User: Fold this.
Amino acid sequence: MADPTDPRLTPLALSLPATVPFVGPEAQERARGKPFVARLGANESAFGPSPKAIAAMHAAAAGSWQYADPEAHDLRQAIAAHHGIDAAHIMVGEGIDTLLGNLVRLTVAPGDPVVTSAGAYPTFNYHVTGFGGILHTVPYAGDFEDPERLTARAAEVGAKLIYIANPDNPMGSHHGAATIQRMVSHVPDSCLLVLDEAYIDLAPEGTVPFIAPDDDRVIRMRTFSKAYGLAGARVGYAIGPRPLIAAFDRVRNHFGMARISQAAALAALRDQDWLGQVKAMVVAARDRLAGVARDNGLTPLPSATNFVTMDCGQDGAFARQVVKALGEAGIFVRMPFVAPHDRCIRVSCGPDDAIAAFAAALPQALSTARAAS
Amino acid sequence: MADPTDPRLTPLALSLPATVPFVGPEAQERARGKPFVARLGANESAFGPSPKAIAAMHAAAAGSWQYADPEAHDLRQAIAAHHGIDAAHIMVGEGIDTLLGNLVRLTVAPGDPVVTSAGAYPTFNYHVTGFGGILHTVPYAGDFEDPERLTARAAEVGAKLIYIANPDNPMGSHHGAATIQRMVSHVPDSCLLVLDEAYIDLAPEGTVPFIAPDDDRVIRMRTFSKAYGLAGARVGYAIGPRPLIAAFDRVRNHFGMARISQAAALAALRDQDWLGQVKAMVVAARDRLAGVARDNGLTPLPSATNFVTMDCGQDGAFARQVVKALGEAGIFVRMPFVAPHDRCIRVSCGPDDAIAAFAAALPQALSTARAAS
Assistant:
């Protein structure tokens, strides 16, 4: 804990909680004294990255004595070509988390209002609070983020930013392209919509909205951490209007990206065949996880992502017991933080053996949770 | 360029220049249409990382679908054991640049004064300006940073931070341990000394000061980018008092580090034999570079780092011509930004073939510069 009387910390730094958005599974493994049997809690892609991305990392390892290109030129050009837009609309960074932090720093001064859904991405909230912004939340509409209330609330409080993830984490739900396009048309003047599309590669046809890259109302976030299976490489990118993308150069850590990660992401992007295979494996794993849920009396929610959120039919205390018991049995899963969604557990897709380990552990975990409640 | 009228950027963001601390060599390579023959401009270690670090990266590549441990537990423990201190005094981050950014964010509010030397590390200055701090500079004493003037100036302006690098970049000079220890004793109350020891592994015996890790007046910065040859992996660490180290958790990007980089740094730290070999290669390369300088009528400055700063004996305009002509000949070097040090060029150590390429290109580059001036 920082000394709250240390006069060298800024008033803002002194005001911040010492909490962190997520505890890593490694910390839990150290606490239990052995590794997890199945790692299904962080929506990582246990199907792994493209073999070509792995080969690119092997080839790039010895060259790690060199700093990465601070402009990530080759990767940025490849991403631009992939989307059929100009590279001036693309900012590459060390994962969406870093890009969100930079964006909040650029747009949110202390006291500025920001709108998000109650129970949406904690790391976004961490950045807003960390730069002194004031969070205003709106409830989900059932298991869906509520675009109309988000934009309405933004107009009401004069928000600088609105955050929405489509598909959504932690509920796995999604809105179709038309709904998001309508939301964009309702973004108030002097506000920017942050459209987090971390899971978009795994969503059904018709989910990707058409938004012109120079549309001044939106910045989109994409990542190599989910479908591309490179969470540990830290590569994400933003798509937005040129002046906003250029503004990142005023605050970002220009040499912050690992050289090997640029090489990995470039190879991953070029292997769309692998991405197609992952999508098919994710669809099959979602079905399998849904079956496990139903076999155990849980209700699997429809998912447009690489995880399945399962309604345990009871309260947050019960679901927390289930997550705890699963953890003790060697199965790492997480759950939504906020009611009413915390009635659910959230299980990432993975290969058959991981799902089988989850299926084997779930009945006992539910019994344990029932006994404890 | 960001639109200076965009009402969604903060006043601070709008006030920042669009400049970046360094242009990467890759941008220069793209401009000249071919790669550099010798990459001796960024004080990278062209001797490469430990073969064991490369092997660790190969072994870790396929696991890049997993996020890295946000606590970097194993690496932090190993660093702590290496220094014989508790891991609570260690914060690991994505290179010193990231740690400096976090530190400035924690300590410097808009308008807060910060003291550094005129011509010292531009990226530190970038962070201070980026968070609204006010830079106060003191001149070097010849080719050395001036500890007494730095602390005196800090007292005068009420600085939150003092920055000093020992050994120094870009001059390659260093102070002995006793001088730095005396400097620590002069740090004013309510001020923190940032002791950047990026090059300390390459300095002569007697350079590492004794500073207790819980000394409240100092935070030290170390890196795997220089002697360990892992600039592209982005791994640095801070050593400081527990409350200050803990404060990083309030603002840092917990999942910001590449998983493969943690593995690489851990293996590199464990291979002290390789570090010893690199030190010997750096000493030999410094001698060789000094010889090349003298052969061409330049004055090599003594160096406690992995680069040699060479006094061209004329002004900044002349040295800039030399750097430009070397670049056109395929030799990437840099130079100090600020007078009077910009009379020099700065050449990184490297293997024989790279130094030979530099030696072959230098006479013509000097002739070109003389003709232009």
Notes: Residues 322 and 367 of chain A are 9 Å apart (CA to CA).
